[in-house]
Amino acid sequence: MEQQNEGYYLKLNVALEALIDRWYAWSHLVSPATAVMNIKERHLKIMDSYIRNPKIHAAAVKKPEMLGGPFIDYNGGRVAEIKDLYEDTVQKRTNMLAMYAAVKELNDLLQKEAKGYSLNELYKKVPDILKGYVELFYDLNNQPNFRFFEALLYNSEYYDESTQSIMLQLVESDNDRSFCLSTPRLNDDHLIHLDIPFRNNVIDELFKMKRTPGSYEEIKKLLGIPDDKEELFETFFTKTPPPKHEPYTGDGIRTRYFGHACVLVETKEISILVDPVISYDGYETDIPRYTINDLPETIDYVLITHNHQDHVLLETLLQLRHCMKTLVVPSSSKGSLQDPGLRLMFEKIGFENIIELDDMQTIELDRCTITGMPFIGEHSDLDVRSKLCFHVALHNKFKVLFVADSCNVEPMLYDRIHKTVGDIDVLFLGMECDGAPLSWLYGPLLPEPLPRDQDHSRRLAGCNFEQGYSLLETFSPKNVFVYAMGMEPWLEFISSIKYTDESKPIVESNRLLEKCKELNIDGERLYGEKTIEY
After folding, report:
1. DSSP string, 40-59
2. CA–CA separation, 72 vs 82, rounded Å?
3. Residue 162, CB-side half-sphere exposure with 13 Å CA sphere
4. Which of 203, 274, 295, 439 is the most exposed place for a label (fewest CB within 10 A)?
5. Per-state percent for the chain, helix, strand, coil, to nearest 5
6. Cα 34 to Cα 103: distance, rounded to the nearest angstrom
7. Spatial contact of 388 and 405, defined as CB atoms under 8 Å apart
């Protein structure tokens, strides 16, 4: 590469993976309490299984029905490296494993000794490493439990930024990455691993260069690129500027679908991006899609609907952090193990200007209001409160409702909401109505595994036909867009979803779209990209 200071752009297909202990980072790995449980009950168990039976893993990952299962995708090889990672994790995470044991001990203590009488004396029996980090309580059914003081955990040894790193690579196709929750990221010739914590603003400086040219030498120095990776790092840059983004300047409203649950709403005054999950650009593909270059240079509001890894995608959010003005997240239940706080997490990893919304709270802006609405179901009947639908009203008349994965199990809820917000113009409705069982995501947090029949009855599922149709009857939308299905191939490494024509979400959403035709409602199941102007 020419040794010039300025004029280099980061290629549009350079990807960042945020990692913790070399595993793909998501909110439950950042928050200390949930990280403890996932390290012990997910990471170490998966690695131990692979070390013992690598051929079983190699066979499983080749079966479509096993996608998303606890199987490492290294074709049965690299066992010694996985063993090294296992041993390194055990050594470096001694304190976390001790905390895991203490959480189990505390739960057992409460189940055995909290019989409805005052809990004051039990504080003396709380394991030492948890003292000062938990509060004991009864619920109104006289069942004992505990909650964490999560902010204190973030200020303790249990939040360790030295375990955070980033991995850079060129993405050459839509599905060349292994499922993120099951395969740790080992060293490879085409990857660059850097020990950089997520809050470090060098990440912002790097990804600004996808649009604004900068100095190759300066960014190389800031990142601390090793000598043996410099030749690869050079291939991440180009002198050719990306296509120029044309901002929306119309008098109306433009809505763009970017894939999965990611939607951009724009007027000439404001831009709102919901659940950012952005595909990469710069390689051959048959599926049209919008990419980071189709976003405005400044995003006024980023809205997060709920705390699942396909809606809080750190990979995308860290790349956009430098151009986000305000991040809006749902409030949490404040200290519950299954419901870590999003605001706390985002603050710790370097995001600013965060608004935490509760049900039916509104952000009032000039010619725009953003209201958080109750989001029901889809969390396996656990007490998870960090979830919101978003009602966006523009120009004081045009109303869009993003339901995301809310499962309309109680239609009276939305009937009551309708009395406050009225009819809407556009409904974005998630219909991934199969859903994984509770244990797939929340299993590491459970004190004891659930019986299989109970586990499989409590699913991470969105609306089926009847539940979706009920929303149409309630809100009378003019347009209905089925989304958040995880259909796009560039999402497979996150969602592990592959549909056939017989898959329940396809069948159920087809029924809903047929009903839309009967009712003269414009309906469509979104895939790839879509622009709608009003």
Report:
1. IIIIHHHHHHHHH-HHHHHH
2. 9
3. 5
4. 439
5. 35, 20, 45
6. 11
7. no
In whole angstroms, give the CA distance from residue 83 to residue 111. 36
Query: Which conformational region is residue 16 in: left (phi greater than 0), alpha (psi within -120 to 50 degrees), or beta?
Result: beta
The interaxial angle of helices 411-421 and 465-475, nearest 10 deg, is 20
Taking the C-alpha atoms of residue 455 and residue 70, their distance in angstroms, rounded to an integer, is 16
Max alpha carbon distance in the chain (Å)? 75
Q: Give the gyration radius of the chain's Cα atoms.
A: 23
In this structure, are residues 394 and 368 in contact, taking their beta carbons and an 8 Å threshold? yes
pLDDT at 495 over 80: yes
Rounded distance, CA 154 to CA 159, Å?
5
Residue 245 C-alpha from the chain's centroid: 26
pTM, 2 dp: 0.96
Closest CA to 471 of 383, 410, 518, 530: 410
Nearest to 367 by CA among 329, 343, 399: 399
Residues 515-531 pLDDT 10s: 999 999 999 999 999 99
CB of 386 within 8 A of CB of 331? yes
User: Using 50, 70 and 90 to split pLDDT, how confident is the model at 5?
Assistant: low
Report phi then psi at 106, rounded to 5: -65, -45
CA 94 from chain centre, in angstroms, equals 27
Q: Residue 64 to residues 185, 262, 496: CA-CA distances in angstroms?
A: 21, 25, 9
DSSP string computed for 97-138: HHHHHHHHHHHHHHHHH-SSS-SGGGGGGS-GGGTTTEEEEE
Give per-residue pLDDT as tens, 215-266.
999 999 999 999 999 999 999 999 999 998 889 999 999 999 999 999 999 9
Rounded Cα gap, residues 455 and 49, in angstroms:
22
What span, in angstroms and rounded, lies between the C-alpha atoms of 173 and 250? 34
Instruction: Give dist(CA 122, CA 126) in Å, integer.
Output: 7
Residue 351, token pair as written in the block: 């995001």
CA separation for the pair 47, 60 (Å, rounded)? 15
| Contact criterion met (CB below 8 Å) for 302 and 276 | yes
Q: Give the containing element (helix H, strand E) for 146.
A: strand 144-148
Q: Which helix (H) or strand (E) holds 402?
A: strand 398-404
Least-confidence region, from 18-27, 162-171, 236-245, 343-352: 236-245
Q: How many CB atoms lie within 10 A of CB 154?
A: 18
DSSP of 237-282: EESSPPPPP-----SS-EEEEEETTEEEEE-SS-EEEES---B--S
DSSP state of 491: G
Give the whole-angstrom CA distance, residue 172 versus residue 358. Answer: 41
Q: What is the pLDDT of residues 130-161, one digit of tens each?
A: 999 999 999 999 999 999 999 999 999 999 99
Output the six-digit token pair for 154: 């973030």
- Say how far apart CA 252 and CA 394 lie, in whole Å: 9
| The predicted structure's pLDDT at residue 1 | 47
Tally the C-alpha atoms within 13 A of residue 329's C-alpha that lie toward its C-beta.
24
Residue 187, classified by CB atoms within 10 Å of its CB into exposed (0-12), middle (13-18) or buried (19+), is exposed
